[in-house]
Amino acid sequence: MSEHFLVLMDRSAAVSQPVRQRPAGKKREEDGEKEVEKRGTIIKALTDQKVMATEALSRRNIWEPSVYYALGNESFYFAGHDISIRESMDTYGALIWPGAIALCQFLDNNQQQVNLMDKAVLEIGAGTGLVSVVASLLGAWVTATDLPDILSNLTFNLLRNTKGRCRYTPQVSALSWGRDLDRDFPYPSYHYDYVLAADVVYHHNCLEELLKTMCHFCRPGSQTALLWANKIRFQSDLRFTECFESSFNTTLLIELPQQEIRIYKAIAKE
Questions:
Q1: Which of 115, 62, 81, 92 is nearest to 206 (CA)?
Q2: 21 Cβ partners below 8 Å, 6+ apart?
Q3: What would the pLDDT profile of 204-254 be if each residue is shown by its tens digit?
Q4: How many H helices and E strands in the chain?
Q5: Contact criterion met (CB below 8 Å) for 231 and 264
Q6: What stretches in the chain show pLDDT beneath 70?
Q7: Mapping DSSP to helix (H, G, I), strand (E, B) and coil, where does residue 133 land?
């Protein structure tokens, strides 16, 4: 309903009462401040998106020579196997990010500290599926989740790299953070030993929903361990980390200062 129509309704309901208006100069000043604030928000969002896009194009230079890049395809060697991952530039979820590679390296190099053999593992924000592939190759029963439009490429990469190689066939399921969790993943029917998350905190508007999802799968007393790897890019990342640490008992497993990547292990507070 337009503001003009509301004003007409108010006038017809009380014709004898004068309509009080703010001074024109004051109104223009307030409108100007709102416009400046709005433009600032838009510029910051576009800047953050540009940072992510630039990183997507240049990240291969950071990880050489362990990662060999080809257009739309990246090759890795983890858990004793060659892994080939198909990417897409259409969405952030179809790209491999540094946090995912760091988490794979950690899991591969610290199998005694984090033993995934015969463990039930859930990955949230699985993207291309690299982390889920590695977890499967390390002996876990994996469920990889992401938004519906990501699942086709995710499924392709999982099957391509795990068929005939793993103790368990990895599963794929749609999961929108914070939505219908009790309906689609009721506790304790869906209980996991580990929840994995890599580079799920970046420029998006679902940070509260993400934390809610983490808390849903890692409940007090469940002993479910959350392994979260992330590159710190924006101030919002640090604010999320503060909320994360207030909800979980956290341990910083590893920090890579040059890449600004941290890997946490977290258990829900009692």
A1: 92
A2: 27
A3: 678 999 999 999 999 999 999 999 999 988 888 899 999 999 999 999 999
A4: 8, 10
A5: no
A6: 1-71, 89-94, 203-204
A7: helix
